[in-house]
C-alpha cells in the first residue's frame, strides 16, 4: 500500500540516514529516559535557549496540553480549514471556537487576515490557533501576514499559537523571530514531517520559559521513549544530510504539481508542505479508484465538521508527495480517469 493519506514523509530517509538510528542499549531499556540532551539539540537546531523548549510525544500532544493550559472553556479563534486534530482537541478542552474561513482566489487560498485581526481586537478570545503552512491547504502565511498578526497580538491577553509542523518544507516564514517581543507566543513543531520520524512521535514546543513550565506540569512523566529520543538525536546530528534529502522531496513536489497541471480537469494548488491539495470532480470515486490500486489518499471534505470548511474542500484530495517510483502510477491513474 502506498501511504499518501497522512502526510508522512515515507521516502525521505535514505538507507544511510535510516542506518544512523541506533537501537537502545540494555541500560537504556531498563532506565527512564532523560531529555536534556534532546532539548539542547532541538534548542541549538532552532536557535533558542534550552529552557524555551519542551519535548512532547508528537506535536498533537503539545497542541492538547497548550489547549488545556490556556483555554479553560474560553474562546478560540481558529482560521479554517486547519489540521483536523484541532477540532477534537479543542472540543475536549471545552473551547468556544470562532472559525474564520480561508478564501479561494485565482487558484490560490488566501489567509483571512482582516477578519482574524478584527476578531482578535474584540478581546474575547483566550487563544488564536494558526497552522502555518496550512494543513490541508498547503499554503503559508506571508511575512506581511505574520508581522500584522504579531502587531495585533502584542499587548493583548490572547495567546498566539502557531503550529509550524511543515516549516522546513516551506520558504521559511516563521513566527520565531518574534519570540522575544511577543511573550504570549507559542510555536509548535515536530520531527514527524521534516525528519520523517512520524513513528517516533517527537514533537516540541518553543515558548517563554514560564509557558514551558506551565505546560510541562500537565504532561505525564517520561512521555517519550528511549528509541524515539535516540532516533531524534541521530537525525538532528545529521541535520544537513536530512536537509539535502528534504530538498529532493521538495523538488519532487514541484515536478508532481507540474505533472498534475497537465491533466485536464485537475487543479493542483501551490504547496509549501510535503503534500499537495488537488481539486477534482467526483473526488470520492477517485479516492476509491486509488484505493483499489493500492494507493491511499485523503478526502478533503471529511477533514472537518464545520459546514463552511466542508463546502470549501468539496471535491478535493490531499495527496502526500509520492516517491519517484510511485509518482508515475499516481499520475497515470488520474490521466486515465480524466483524459479517456
3D structure, described in words:
The chain has 13 helices and 15 strands. The protein has helices at 15-19, 26-29, 36-46, 59-70, 85-92, 113-121, 143-153, 209-216, 226-236, 239-261, 283-292, 307-312, 327-339, and strands spanning 2-3, 53-56, 75-80, 96-101, 103-105, 108-110, 125-131, 159-163, 185-190, 203-207, 266-268, 275-280, 295-296, 298-299, 316-320. It is an alpha/beta fold and 340 residues long. A 7-stranded mixed sheet has the order 2-10-9-8-7-3-4, sandwiched between helices. Strand 11 and strand 12 form a beta hairpin. It has 2 domains: 2-11 and 240-339, Aspartate Aminotransferase, domain 1 (Alpha-Beta Complex), CATH 3.90.1150.10; 22-238, Type I PLP-dependent aspartate aminotransferase-like (Major domain) (Aspartate Aminotransferase, domain 2). Helices cover 39% and strands 19% of the residues.
